[in-house]
Specification:
Elements: E1 6-14, E2 20-26, E3 30-31, H1 34-41, E4 55-59, E5 62-67, H2 69-78, E6 85-89, H3 94-108, E7 112-114, H4 116-120, E8 126-128, H5 135-145, H6 148-167, H7 170-179, H8 196-202, E9 212-219, E10 229-236, E11 239-248, E12 254-256, H9 263-280, H10 283-286, H11 300-316, E13 320-322, H12 325-332, E14 336-341, H13 345-352, E15 363-364, E16 366-372, E17 375-378, H14 379-387, E18 392-395, E19 398-401, H15 404-415, E20 423-424, H16 425-435, E21 449-450
Parallel strand pairs: 1-6, 9-13
Antiparallel strand pairs: 1-2, 2-3, 2-5, 4-5, 7-8, 9-10, 10-11, 11-12, 14-16, 14-21, 15-20, 16-17, 18-19
Length: 451
């Protein structure tokens, strides 16, 4: 005598969003109502409050139950059903029902990764690691892939489950953004030319097993080469000072001198380096001889653009960039306008104010000084450098960045003062305090500079 009181055949399909569309039938009654089915099929399903929270929709002459995408894999992986009913899965959904426990284990064991194709289209989607499945399980996945609807729905429900179980809380989502910022980069072109493996390494999802890391280095003019230039170098992970220069040619092959154990890694990665650079850098930088795509010297204007714009784009794309040591300090120190009180002005001011060191309204003669980084320029020196119309200029053995906007602001301030009338000591103090609000300096004395 059978222990089953009835037999229900369950039919299921996955929507493009991963939701399960389920309906049931019996030999005697045909299609069963959605309410009847959900109260029996989900009698042990706590998440849906035992089926009561699930939606029932009418489709033509039958009713279907909608199981949300993030609940599909956990439900079928759990497998707890009413035992007095014989449950029969139709042929179309049987491969998924059999695969569900393995998919759930895959998620539990963190054997998944973000999808590169979804990233390129501006979405975050999770895909399973094929190495997590047995050949038999991979065969079931292949069967589902053959049906376009099942293929899309399977990927959607897997991704929704990962998102819900692993990153569903605000804390977990925040941790993901902090640990993998490149996964949320708006610069989608950075992934052009990479395969899935290279991209996962680039965003830090998988460890890079190569014994080196690629960097792009900006070299300043020197005795050997009088122009700015870019160079691709490989940095030894065990010795940060160990750099090997690399030439990339137009087909993505790399040439240079490096340890023999690096060769296989370089051959595998160099085409991706080229396509990554082509995506992140403007064409003018990469327009070069065939034997080296970075072989073209850079003008001062191009070097300025690389320092201020291109290097930031490379960093956002996951590249490491080596800039001249002086750039970080120079970029933080903005040009400042100073007024140098001429020698003897303190004595004149003292006499005119009746004995005080300086009267605040006393007019004094001065000379302009412009401080840029560690360098201090006279008005004539500043005018000479500005007249060269260059963003990066060499002055007294050091490079000075001249931001056009800041230069224009300084020139406007200088033009707003009538040299013949001079400045009052109060005006000089005002300039000094405005320009040094983030510094602590003593008040200027006779012959010293005041900003």
């Amino acid at each position: 005598m059978s222990r089953h009181t009835e037999t229900i055949t369950v039919h299921m399909a996955l929507s493009e969003y991963g939701d399960a569309v389920i309906y049931g039938s019996t030999v005697m009654r045909g299609y069963v109502s959605g309410t009847y089915l959900k109260h029996r099929l989900f009698a042990w399903h706590e998440v849906s409050f035992y089926g009561t929270k699930l939606t029932v929709q009418a489709v033509q002459d039958m009713e279907v139950v909608i199981l949300p995408s993030e609940q599909v894999i956990p439900f079928f992986a759990d497998g707890r059903l009413l035992e007095h009913i014989e449950w029969v899965w139709d042929e179309a959904c049987l491969p998924f029902v059999e695969l569900a426990p393995s998919l759930a284990n895959c998620i539990q064991d963190k054997k998944y990764a973000p999808s590169l194709s979804a990233f390129k289209s501006g979405k975050l989607q999770w895909v399973w690691d094929a190495e997590a499945f047995t050949p038999e399980e991979l065969n079931r996945i292949s069967l589902l892939h053959e049906d376009e609807i099942w293929d899309e729905g399977l990927r959607a429900t897997f991704s929704a489950t990962v998102q819900d179980q692993c990153y569903g809380s605000e804390e977990a989502a925040a941790d993901l953004r902090r640990e993998y910022p490149l996964l949320f980069s708006q610069n989608r072109t950075a992934a052009e030319g990479m395969d899935d493996k290279q991209w996962l390494i680039a965003i830090g999802w998988r460890p890079d097993t190569a014994p080196f890391r690629p960097l792009l280095q900006l070299l300043e003019p020197d005795e050997e080469a009088p122009e700015w230039r870019l160079k691709l170098v490989l940095q030894d992970k065990q010795d940060a000072a160990g750099l090997a220069a690399v030439r990339l040619v137009e087909d993505g092959q790399a040439f240079g001198s490096w340890p023999e154990t690096w060769t296989a890694h370089i051959k595998e990665r160099s085409p991706g380096w080229l396509q990554g650079l082509q995506a992140a850098l403007p064409a003018r930088v990469l327009h070069a001889p065939e034997d080296d795509v970075l072989g073209k010297p850079l003008s001062d204007e191009a070097a300025w653009q690389f320092l201020t714009v291109d290097s930031q784009r490379l960093l956002q794309s996951g590249w490491l960039v080596l800039l001249p040591a002086w750039w970080e300090a120079a970029s933080r120190k903005k040009p400042k306008l100073r007024a140098k009180v001429r020698s003897g002005e303190g004595e004149n001011a003292e006499r005119s104010s009746g004995g005080s060191l300086f009267g605040l309204d006393a007019l004094v003669n001065f000379d302009w000084r412009i401080a840029i980084g560690e360098a201090t320029l006279s008005e004539d020196e500043f005018a000479e450098l500005v007249a060269r119309n260059e963003r990066l200029v060499r002055f007294r053995g050091q490079w000075i960045p001249l931001d056009p906007a800041l230069v224009a602001q300084i020139r406007q301030m200088m033009a707003g003062v009538d040299r013949e009338d001079g400045l009052s000591f109060q005006d000089i103090l005002h300039l000094h305090l405005l320009g040094n609000s983030d510094e602590t300096e003593p008040p200027p004395q006779n012959g010293e500079e005041a900003q």
